[in-house]
Design brief:
The complex is a heterotrimer of chains A (121), B (777) and C (162). With 121 residues, chain A is of the alpha/beta class. Chain A has one domain: 3-Layer(aba) Sandwich (Rossmann fold), CATH 3.40.50. Helix content of chain A is 45%, strand content 20%. Chain A contains five helices and five strands. A five-stranded parallel sheet of chain A has the order 2-1-3-4-5, with helices on both faces. The longest helix of chain A has 13 residues. The longest helix of chain B is centred in the first third of the chain and has 28 residues. The two termini of chain B are 54 Å apart. Classes of the chains: A alpha/beta (121), B alpha+beta (777), C alpha+beta (162). Chain A: This is Two-component system response regulator. Chain A: Keywords: Phosphoprotein. Chain A: InterPro entries: Bact_response_regulator, CheY-like_superfamily, Sig_transdc_resp-reg_receiver.
């Protein structure tokens, strides 16, 4: 069964790079440009893991994660945060909102895949 | 092109959009609009640019962008005040970032200290060094030594992935390999969708593992709380050279959501009062197999799907409004709900806490779900519902545009074939063709609209240009832009940038006077350049005008005579002198500055515009200013023309230029002293150009049987073209002559007629201009 | 209009030929034979008229429509200074790519495909200015002298001066 990943980021470049790495690794990739789009997509699609940026227009990553968890339907959906921040602050915020783990941007492709494998069955 | 190149191209595309947005947002911020949305938007823009720069290894850019981004972060937080000084600093910084992007794109290097002043100022502001003393809130030292990690997307990384620096515990006794781990997850661990089973799986990959589950805490069912955690585990793990750091890395994400004790095997025996007297359950002690804890974990995991664990998260959030309503086991009071039913049997309990049906099955039950959109490019995966636009490859659009163009020609040809007899006999056919013509026209307009974009993207580069020019020339110049939302075909827009740049440079260099001269002339110190775009009839008009000194006609004429562009005995009108600035090789700059004197002049501007079927006209008022008008076709592809014959060959004249046509026998020609001919039309004398003569073609038809096509060009100047025959109106598709050949004087381009032959487009404006320099007409 | 498309065959033939040999398409102007490297040729068409271009030299015959693109036609005879061709349906236009442009050359007839050895190519003898300008070399094949056309030279200098 192909694993499905939802990638949420307002940067076209990042979405393209994620798509490239993930589909080469055999994942099916869905894309959204901000938290609201991501949320809408989750209503209609089932995914196995989410990768989301923090800084996005309309609805940022923190709000997105909070909203996903609040639906009650995605409590075991792993959500990974993409962050360029080296400070602890954003990661803590993400975790507090319900995030599962994180990946530092710019991401190393192998590391990305291994982190995903770490949080998904 | 490698994938990396593709991504770079996407990145640079994105940067260009982001830079345009930065320019716009800061223009608004400068004007006083400083709301949170804007500040967030500019932060995100720099954040994205920095992110990509890091990924591709543009280290110079990263350093600068990081300092800028940090400042913007502090500004949006309110930690740094957004003074006018800061705004100006940021505007300068935008230019610096743009330079970095361009350098990265072209592979050039900027000087090492490029932007150092601005960066230093950012750092200072972020540290809190401002003019006023701030209240003691200490601003944390942010990490300027940020090192970007360059991404190699193609080759798999050999060797180990870099170890995350998120650990708290320093690695102890790194190389010996036997460890005992006690692991007790908290509720929050599950709330964040972490899974002990996965953690164990990862641990098992590190070495030989044995796991023992401690179930002493598990209460009787009557007290059982589905969301609480009762299990803990003791794990022994050994492998040669297994470090504590490696183990801690496995628990990286759940740090804080569990109790974890890691000790060297044998050094701290598994103690812990709570476990000693509880029955230990030996779980599977597999060597490399997954511990079979799933049956034990099933209860604690799956029932979590029954309701939101809002209580465990930082702040409770109301579920999004339009989301489907929850199944009964809903809100934060889940705990209470179960405590109220103490005497439930296990089966009843199991039924009450049914795991939520797997998501696939849930789909049809969700009233809020919308149909899956399949719009957009398959290669990019799904786009979510409610998206306003799709990205389409320009190639695909071009193909459609070309096909519609061919359709237009074919339809036009069909209509042409209808001669009088056919028309009389097949009225239905005629009507059908008329409808076809209308529909095709509508289709064409719609298709061209797809490719149309606001000129904003080109206009947005100009403010920076003007800033640079002002600073380089020492003049004070203000730029006004009007009509940026006017839409033009995308391919035309791309051709606009160079000509506009030249024209603005020209205004700044030659038009606007320096402040002292302006004051002496009774003008304000700051000169204005106004850039505007509007639709006028079937064209787009782009006007660059300034309130400078106007064209110095004496100097221009003298230079033109010196260069032999104008013959000595000819006295051009003011307007003709103005147009001379477009003559090849013309430049009035005595000191050729590095701004406008790069070896290209206004003649290049003119030819570039002509290439896309447009025209340029200049008007000047001495002491008051200069206005240059660019007239561009709305659509590149299809042109309405009048088909004529000259010397036996087909030529077309753009319909938009034609005022009227008449037969030569009826025309009122007169000779002028210089040897040319003029035509008298309603009291006006109009220059006559015999196309056959101009094009060196033999006259196929005697003079009286020729026709005159009266045309109006820029500046309402008229010219009368003499042709052998007038065939009729047509729509044609414009094709480039320069693609395989080169520019030909007097010819604006080529077209393909319905019969497949090439007809040349007469360059009316060009013919008129060069007419000054020729004696014979 | 007849059109022979050689593009598909060409790469095979070049591959088949050895390193030191050259494959040419030979054509004639009057009694003279000329050749161009086969890899430059895109199409061979029968002459079917051309729209004349004003303000160009006498050897620029005009332009034609090649599947929606405008391609200029050069009269090779006129280029060599031998007067203008009076083309009929039997004359031939060889469409070639020169740099990034496509151009057509009007010739009397196309003869055949020759394979010559690079070592057999001589320099153009001094004396005839036009030949030196327009030819890259001369090679003998089957007792015929074949002039190797320098395409870039042929297509430059097409505009009227002044």
């Amino acid at each position: 069964m192909t694993l499905r990943v939802l990638t949420v980021d307002d940067s076209r470049t990042i979405l393209a790079m994620l798509h490239h790495t993930l589909s080469n690794a055999g994942f099916e990739v869905l894309q959204a440009e901000d938290g609201k789009q991501g949320l809408d997509l989750l209503k209609a699609e089932s995914v196995d893991v989410v990768i989301t940026d923090i800084n996005m227009p309309v609805m940022d990553g923190i709000e997105f994660i909070k909203n996903v968890r609040a639906t009650g339907q995605h409590n075991s959906l792993p959500i990974l945060i993409l962050t360029t921040e080296t400070s602890q602050d954003k990661r803590d915020q993400g975790k507090a909102a319900g995030g599962t783990g994180w990946i530092v941007k710019p991401f190393d492709p192998e590391k990305l895949i291994s982190v995903i494998q770490r949080v998904v069955h | 092109m490698s994938d990396l190149d593709d991504f770079k191209a996407t990145y640079f595309d994105e940067c260009s959009e982001l830079l345009t947005e930065l320019e716009e947002q800061f223009a608004a911020i400068e004007a006083g609009e400083r709301d949170a949305d804007r500040l967030n938007a500019v932060f995100r823009a720099i954040h994205s640019i920095k992110g990509g720069a890091g990924a591709f290894g543009f280290s110079a850019m990263v350093g600068f962008a990081h300092a800028y981004e940090t400042l913007l972060d502090y500004v949006r937080d309110g930690r740094v005040e957004l003074t006018d000084e800061v705004v100006s600093l940021c505007i300068r910084a935008n230019d610096i970032v743009a330079d970095h992007v361009n350098a990265a794109q072209s592979g050039d290097d900027l000087p090492a200290d490029y932007g150092a002043d601005e960066k230093a100022r950012f750092d200072a502001l972020a540290r809190g060094d401002s003019a006023e003393d701030e209240e003691g809130e200490p601003i944390e030292d942010f990490d300027i030594e940020f090192t970007p990690v360059m991404v190699n997307l193609d080759a798999p990384a050999s060797g180990e992935a870099p170890v995350e620096d998120a650990f708290e515990a320093p690695p102890m006794q790194a190389e010996t390999g036997s460890w005992e781990i006690r692991f007790t997850p908290h509720r929050a661990l599950y709330a964040r969708a972490n899974d002990p089973l996965l953690l164990f799986r990862e641990l098992a990959a590190l070495g030989r593992m044995q796991v023992v589950a401690r179930l002493g805490e598990v209460p009787p069912l009557s007290d059982f709380e589905p969301f609480a955690v009762y299990c803990s585990w003791e794990i022994t793990l050994s492998a040669p050279e297994l470090s504590e750091a490696a183990i801690r890395e496995v628990f990286e994400f759940v740090d804080g959501d569990c109790d974890i004790v890691i000790a060297q095997a044998g050094s701290a025996p598994f103690a812990g009062a709570s476990f000693e007297d509880s029955p230990a359950v030996e779980a599977a002690a597999a060597v490399q197999d997954e511990p079979d804890l799933s049956s034990l974990l099933a209860l604690t995991d799956d029932e979590m799907n029954g309701g939101p664990l809002v209580a465990d998260l930082a702040e409770p959030v109301a579920p999004p409004e339009d989301f489907a309503p929850e199944p009964e086991a809903a809100p934060a009071g889940a705990q209470d709900a179960f405590e109220e039913a103490p005497a439930l049997s296990f089966t009843a309990l199991a039924e009450a806490i049914q795991p939520a049906p797997p998501p696939q099955a849930a789909k049809p039950a969700m009233p809020a779900a919308k149909a899956l959109p399949t719009a957009g490019e398959g290669e990019e995966g799904h786009r979510s519902v409610g998206v306003q636009s799709i990205r389409v490859d320009l190639d695909k659009v071009d193909r459609v545009v070309n096909m519609v163009g061919e359709l237009v020609i074919t339809q036009s040809m069909l209509t042409q074939q209808m001669d009088e007899t056919l028309r009389a006999r097949y009225t239905e056919l005629v009507r059908g063709l008329e409808v076809l013509a209308q529909t095709t026209r509508g289709l064409q307009d719609s298709v061209m609209a797809i490719r149309a974009q606001p000129v904003k993207s080109v206009f947005s580069r100009m403010p920076r240009l003007v800033r640079e020019l002002a600073s380089k020339t020492g003049k004070k110049i203000k730029l006004e832009t009007i009509g940026e939302n006017t839409e033009i075909d995308k391919t035309v827009i791309e051709q606009l940038s160079d000509p506009l740049t030249h024209m603005i440079r020209n205004s700044a260099d030659h038009g606007i006077e320096d402040p002292a001269r302006r004051l002496a002339a009774g003008k304000g110190e700051t000169g204005t350049i106004r850039l505007s775009a509007e639709q006028a009839g079937g064209n787009i008009l782009i006007i660059v005008e300034d309130d400078g000194a106007g064209i110095n006609r004496e100097r221009v004429l003298k230079l033109a005579r010196d260069k032999g562009i104008v013959a000595p005995e000819i006295t051009p009108t003011d307007e003709q002198i103005d147009q001379l600035i477009f003559a090849p090789g013309f430049s009035t700059a005595e000191a050729v500055s590095d701004i406008s004197g790069r070896g290209v002049g206004m003649d290049v501007v003119l030819s570039n515009i002509k290439k896309i079927g447009g025209s340029v006209h200049v008007r000047s008022w001495t002491g008051k200013g200069t206005r240059m008008t660019l007239r561009l076709p709305l659509t590149l592809a299809v042109l309405d023309v009048m088909l004529v014959k000259v010397g036996g060959g087909p030529y077309v004249v753009p319909l938009s230029s034609i005022v009227e046509t008449m037969q030569c026998s009826r025309a009122n020609f007169e000779r002028v002293p210089s040897g040319g001919r003029v035509l008298q039309v309603r009291g006006e004398y109009v220059q006559v150009i015999d196309l056959g003569q101009r094009f060196g073609l033999p006259n196929a038809v005697p003079a009286e049987e020729q026709f005159v096509v009266l045309c109006e060009t820029e500046g309402s100047q008229k010219v009368a073209l003499v042709v052998d025959d007038i065939i009729g109106q047509q729509q044609v598709v414009i094709k480039s002559l320069e693609e395989n050949f080169e520019r030909v004087d007097g010819i604006a381009g080529g077209t393909i007629l319905g019969d497949g032959n090439v007809a040349l487009i007469v360059d009316v404006q060009g013919l008129r201009s060069t007419h000054i320099h020729q004696n014979a007409a | 209009m007849e059109a022979l498309s050689l593009r598909d065959d060409m790469s095979d033939k070049s591959a088949a030929a050895g390193q030191n040999s050259l494959q040419l398409i030979a054509f004639s102007i009057g009694e003279q034979t000329y050749g161009v490297e086969i890899t430059t040729v895109r199409e061979i068409r029968a002459w079917n008229g051309a729209t004349p271009l004003p303000n160009t030299r006498e050897f620029v015959r005009g332009v034609i429509n090649l599947r929606g693109t405008i391609v200029p036609i050069f009269d090779l005879r006129a280029r060599f200074g031998d007067g203008q061709t009076a083309p009929t349906k039997n004359h031939v236009v060889v469409v070639m790519s020169v740099g990034d442009k496509w151009v057509g050359i009007l010739v009397d007839a196309v003869s055949d495909i020759l394979t010559v050895n690079r070592d057999d190519i001589h320099n153009v003898p001094e004396g005839n200015a036009i030949d030196t300008e327009l030819l890259n070399g001369i090679v003998t094949h089957d007792n015929r002298m074949v002039g190797l056309i320098d395409l870039h030279a042929v297509v430059t200098g097409a505009k009227m001066d002044g």
